[in-house]
Amino acid sequence: MNAARRALPVDDAPLLEAERLALEVGERWLCCEFSLSLAAGECLVLLGPNGAGKTTLLHTLAGLREPTVGEVRIGGLPYAAWPALEAARFRGLLAQQQPDPFAASVLETVLVGRHPHLGRWGWEGPQDVAIARAALESVGLAGFEQRDVQTLSGGERQRVGIATLLAQAPRLFLLDEPLNHLDLHHQIAALELFQRLLREQGTARGSVLVLHDINLAARYADHIILLDGRGGVIAGDRDAVLRADLLGQAFGHPLRRIEHEGRVVFLPD
After folding, report:
1. How far is residue 245 CA from its own chain's centroid?
2. The domain defined by 14-98+170-266 carries CATH number 3.40.50.2300
3. What are the tens digits of pLDDT across the range 149-205?
4. What this chain does, per the record (predicted)?
5. Residue 7 — very low, low, confident or very high, per pLDDT cuts 50/70/90?
6. For the residues of 121-152, what is the DSSP string, one character each?
7. For labelling alongside 201, which of 5, 43, 245, 247 has CA 20 to 30 A away?
């Protein structure tokens, strides 16, 4: 284990790799074997109809469940080679739901993202608070620090979840439907924020997002994994996967591809 600790992460390795990955739940195959590689500065989007297995796939990429076939690696090594705390510093997950069974302030909630950076008995210090406040400001929630998280609207709570992930400061962002409850303005603001983080000089970050909006995927993704809900999967560069015929087959409705002022959009036929 000491050798593994010294080797984390492997220099110049992709942030995320899946090799001959396949997933089965019960007696149903969610996807047959496929491989992928995500480098620093890249965004991968998971697309597919409801129930196709996008969340299950994301959780597998996050190391929360074992693949039925194949292997997932982050920083060049399988999850088994990572101590849990170091893995939590390398990759962070925004879950689809953020339940709040107990009252807590917004600042206290965002500070949860700093836990991987504290010792076992450590407490948040001024630097952690400053990081949490900066994360709230980046999602437009400066001044919300003392609000009870249980009093927030759905969209405000979603932005607090994003701020918590930002406070964690991982190299690999894994986001399950991050646009839930967000209006159009905040949807674009969130996607632009992560795009800026991926492109910052001196950083080596990547992102994996579960999205429902094909046109936002076309705008922001570098790579796409398209699940059809019947076990089929197509993984590749954005333009190779986002084709009207492939999308129509996956979503069960014909689509039309339109180019307008240098952008590609898909409309239901």
Report:
1. 26
2. no
3. 999 999 999 999 999 999 999 999 999 999 999 999 999 999 999 999 999 877 899
4. Part of the ABC transporter complex HmuTUV involved in hemin import. Responsible for energy coupling to the transport system.
5. low
6. T----HHHHHHHHHHHHHTT-TT-TTSBGGGS
7. 5
Residue that is written with structure tokens 């510093």 in the block: 89
From CA 159, how far away is CA 137, in angstroms rounded?
10
List 77's β-bridge partners, or say none.
74
Reported in sequence order, the residue ranges of 26-143 that DSSP labels E, i.e. its strands, are: 28-38, 43-47, 69-74, 77-78, 91-94
Give bridge partners of residue 260 from the DSSP assignment: 263
The domains of the chain are located at 14-98+170-266
Tally of CA atoms within 13 A in the half-sphere of 238 that contains its CB: 16
Residue 227: strand pairing partners: 233
Give counts: helices (H), strands (E), the chain. 10, 12
237 in Cβ contact with 222 (< 8 Å): yes
Q: Is 216 exposed, middle or buried (0-12, 13-18, 19+ CB in 10 A)?
A: middle
In this structure, what token pair is assigned to residue 49?
């109809």
Tokens found for residue 263: 């952008």
Structure tokens at 114: 């700093």
At residue 215, the pLDDT reads: 97
Taking the C-alpha atoms of residue 123 and residue 219, their distance in angstroms, rounded to an integer, is: 41
